[in-house]
Amino acid sequence: MRVLLVDDEEELVSTLAERLGYRDIDARFATSGEDALVLARAETFDLAVLDMKMPGMGGVELKHELEILQPDMKFIFVTGHGSETDFKAGTAEAGREFYLIKPLRIDTLMDKMREALAERRQP
Amino acid sequence: MSDNPSGTQTGGRTAAERELVFFGRVLASVTHDVKNCLAIINEKAGLAEDLMLMADKGRALDPARLGNLAASIKAQVKRADRIVKNANTLAHSVDAPNSRLDVGNLLGLVCELYRRFADRAEVRLDLTPPEVPIMATGFAFAYIRLFSGLLDAGLAAPQMDKTLRLSLAQQGSGAELAILGLAPEFAPSPETAALAAAMNVRLVIDAAGGRLTAELPGGAVV
């Protein structure tokens, strides 16, 4: 599984990428939407975990850009806010079950990743 | 403080509603930042657990690595503590209508509370604090709302380099707040302009120079 993590908190995504690596998940990270698009132009990912609120390009806009580059990519949204507006936007894009609130439980995140990819494999 | 004490509607909201919106907006930003600190602490602690589990299975454990993780966690605790302290100072700014204030500290507080808003607007806030404490007697929340109103207008209209340079200095018997780096369309809201007038603060906009000067009155400033 190749995963792209995007959050403007570098310590968060770099640590999460390392922890996923110990669980045999090939995770790369970016700290902005623009950097994420650079990575996505160079590499293929199965799934992206996107922070909803980032300076510049937010998670929802980034998802739309990534979908153009890699139509098969699946998405999980992460937020620290939990506002009603974010919840509606995030769940409308990825589904209620793929909208997670920080701090994350890594086992929950991995379960959600597997669920998202299982959905992709269904006809 | 109220720039519309009658409660009449301005821009679709009463003055009281606008103050609640301000508190809600800042509180949402603060809690978002604290959540990020907690999320980082959570991952760092999780990584420490991962390393311990791998050590149990025979992989060498690097003490320096654990030391770095502990230092990162401490740094995030310090960051969260600062964020909560700022929120607490804001919360207590409404306690007394007339108290001794350090105006420079209040400006610094607003800049820190607005850091996330500035990041989202991709604008840099560059604050030069006063060389000596600038004290005043007044309502702390009024100063906070004045500074925040000016920053809102500044973040909406930065120059191309997207840096707002703020400074506060003694000026005669009063003080002068300067904000540089403003685009010609910079315009404080009518509510902010009314608040400045109520506080006897004179706002001077130099559109060509990209500069706002707020002259704080000598009578209130010691």
Q: How would you concisely characterize the structure shown here?
A:
The complex is a heterodimer of chains A (123) and B (222). Helix content of chain A is 49%, strand content 20%.
Structure notes:
The complex is a heterodimer of chains A (123) and B (222). With 123 residues, chain A is α/β, with parallel strands linked by helices. Chain A has 5 helices and 5 strands. Chain A has one domain (2-117): Rossmann fold (3-Layer(aba) Sandwich). With 222 residues, chain B is an alpha+beta fold. Chain B is elongated. Helices cover 52% and strands 20% of the residues of chain B. Chain B has helices at 15-56, 63-92, 103-113, 115-120, 140-156, 190-198, and strands at residues 9-10, 13-14, 99-102, 124-128, 135-138, 163-171, 174-180, 202-206, 211-216. At the A-B interface, helix 1 of A face helix 1 of B.
Entry keywords:
heterodimer; A: 123 residues; alpha/beta; Rossmann fold; five-stranded parallel sheet; 5 helices; B: 222 residues; alpha+beta; Heat Shock Protein 90; 2 domains; five-stranded mixed sheet; two-stranded antiparallel ribbon; 9 strands
> Which homologous superfamily in CATH is the superfamily of chain A?
Response regulator
Question: What's the total number of strands of chain A?
Answer: 5
**What is the CATH architecture term of the largest domain in chain B?**
2-Layer Sandwich
Which stretches of chain A are poorly predicted, pLDDT < 50 over at least 5 residues? none
Question: Topology, pairings included?
Answer:
The complex is a heterodimer of chains A (123) and B (222).
Chain A: E1 2-6, H1 10-21, E2 26-30, H2 33-42, E3 47-51, H3 59-69, E4 74-79, H4 84-94, E5 99-101, H5 106-121
Parallel strand pairs in A: 1-2, 1-3, 3-4, 4-5
Chain B: E1 9-10, E2 13-14, H1 15-56, H2 63-92, E3 99-102, H3 103-113, H4 115-120, E4 124-128, E5 135-138, H5 140-156, E6 163-171, E7 174-180, H6 190-198, E8 202-206, E9 211-216
Parallel strand pairs in B: 4-6
Antiparallel strand pairs in B: 1-2, 3-5, 6-7, 7-9, 8-9
